[in-house]
Amino acid sequence: MQQRFLQMQNRTKISKNTDLANPQLVYIAKITPEDYYVKRGIHRHQKICEITLIQSGRGYYLIEENQELVQQGDVLIVDTGVLHGEGRVLPSICIGLIFDTKKTHYHLISSHIRPVFHFKSEISRALIAQANVAFNLLESSATQAQHLAANIICQSLLPFIMDHLFIDACLKKTSSVTAQLIKNYLDQHYSEKLQIQEVCQVLSLSQTYADSEFQNNYGLSPVQYLTGRRIGEAQTLLINYPHMLIYDVATAVGYENITYFNRVFKKFCGYSPSKYRNIYREQ
């Protein structure tokens, strides 16, 4: 994956689109088929909205309580504060934006709307072409190139997408009440020393039933979800806090043994924690 950031001094507010609360480009990430083995864990962004243009393939992304099918031609909108996990990320372009607003979580779309939108192939190709131009411009540190990249995204691509969203479905929770209870408990306590057996005891569930319900609803076991949740938050900490010790990252997401944390992290996403952080530093 290649991820390019707009330099901080070039983040200008776009005043024309007041309905969009002055969007500002933060980064553009380009995921190719070669990046398929790198997994991104379950996480949320406190300040960033992400718009992902799916270039090819077909797969399921976890968005809050639902497994959402995404495929070529789709645009996926993940608002601030929304828990999501891509797992094996499809070839795509992911655009990170922040908005000049006093709201803690600014939403591009209503929380009741399904966050996956399909565009015709010719429109999808045009949107991807625009995003690629902006991505290539970010390779340059020249102010003019940086501003042009931001303008392409904030004044052209984003308004076009928002003006042409076809709301074909309201969001419906596809998971059972039992599966949601398990997931909510894991989300609230993932940073603690936690065993699935303890979760089942607290919720008065047999582990066999809990495993079956969770697997049927989310496509993975409670243990796999807990691992993905912890590693996803660890990835966020590694990216956002470059000087945070690996040991502190491990303990913040529920791992007391740093050796075990390193092993689980590498098995999950293909890199050790330090290597993963260095990749982002280089970018």
From TrEMBL:
<dbReference type="GO" id="GO:0003700">
    <property type="term" value="F:DNA-binding transcription factor activity"/>
</dbReference>
<keyword id="KW-0805">Transcription regulation</keyword>
<feature type="domain" description="HTH araC/xylS-type">
    <location>
        <begin position="180"/>
        <end position="279"/>
    </location>
</feature>
<dbReference type="InterPro" id="IPR018060">
    <property type="entry name" value="HTH_AraC"/>
</dbReference>
<dbReference type="InterPro" id="IPR037923">
    <property type="entry name" value="HTH-like"/>
</dbReference>
<dbReference type="Pfam" id="PF12833">
    <property type="entry name" value="HTH_18"/>
</dbReference>
<keyword id="KW-0804">Transcription</keyword>
<dbReference type="InterPro" id="IPR009057">
    <property type="entry name" value="Homeodomain-like_sf"/>
</dbReference>
<protein>
    <recommendedName>
        <fullName>HTH araC/xylS-type domain-containing protein</fullName>
    </recommendedName>
</protein>
<dbReference type="InterPro" id="IPR020449">
    <property type="entry name" value="Tscrpt_reg_AraC-type_HTH"/>
</dbReference>
<dbReference type="InterPro" id="IPR018062">
    <property type="entry name" value="HTH_AraC-typ_CS"/>
</dbReference>
<dbReference type="InterPro" id="IPR014710">
    <property type="entry name" value="RmlC-like_jellyroll"/>
</dbReference>
<keyword id="KW-0238">DNA-binding</keyword>
<dbReference type="GO" id="GO:0043565">
    <property type="term" value="F:sequence-specific DNA binding"/>
</dbReference>
